[in-house]
Protein: MHYT domain-containing protein
Amino acid sequence: MPLDQAIQCTHNPLLVVLSYLVSVLGSFTALQLAIAIPSATGAARRRAVVSAGAAMGGGAIWAMHFIAMLACRMNVEVTYDLPITLGSAVVAVVSCMAGLGIAGTGVFNWGKLIIGGVLMGLGVTGMHYAGMAAMLMPADTVYDSTLVMASAAIAIVASIVALWLAFNLRGWGQMLGSALVMGVAVCGMHYTGMLAASFVPNQAGSAATAGGVSGGYLGVGIFVVTTALLAAVLTISLLRQRQRAMVRI
Structure:
């Protein structure tokens, strides 16, 4: 079937907004957690890298991506392969941990920033297209290679910026402004990647969606759970920072 007969995707405005909000909260939390990376050593440093990477990869990027995927409404049934979906989350988290670990090791410099940003950006791109591959539906996905490359470029640039912000900003105002910008960048990568895809109907029928997960409230549920986890982590981090400040006094 030609591309001019591809299935059209219309987005649920509520889920689009929620995907942006969770990306901003995840970015803000990750920036707060990354403060501890340069000065920490040993197990403390590993904990800081893991927690900041999980907030960025799992909250700011993967949760945003999956909620935005669920925001896409088409006139065919769509479910999601659970192992591939969870695997895409692992890719996002691990790539963010790697980027933060590389950029935050020793003296901060542009070489490590670019290496870490490229690695993180490629991981984010892999997460996105793995998530797309998890879509189970009676349609084939055809990609525009130019837009795929554009989405990868956005992911790499956004990752480099995120790492620079993580190790050069201090103060709530700066971090909040940066998180708002990061939310736009992460969403821009996702929707560019979605624009690159055309969904061409095939003859698979209902068998194509068997075994996948779906649900009308799945997107809202992921937002609620992710937001609660990020808020808890952020609160604990801020309390620890305050305790350390009081000890120094």
In short: The chain has seven helices and six strands. The first strand starts at residue 10 and ends at 11. The mean pLDDT is 88.
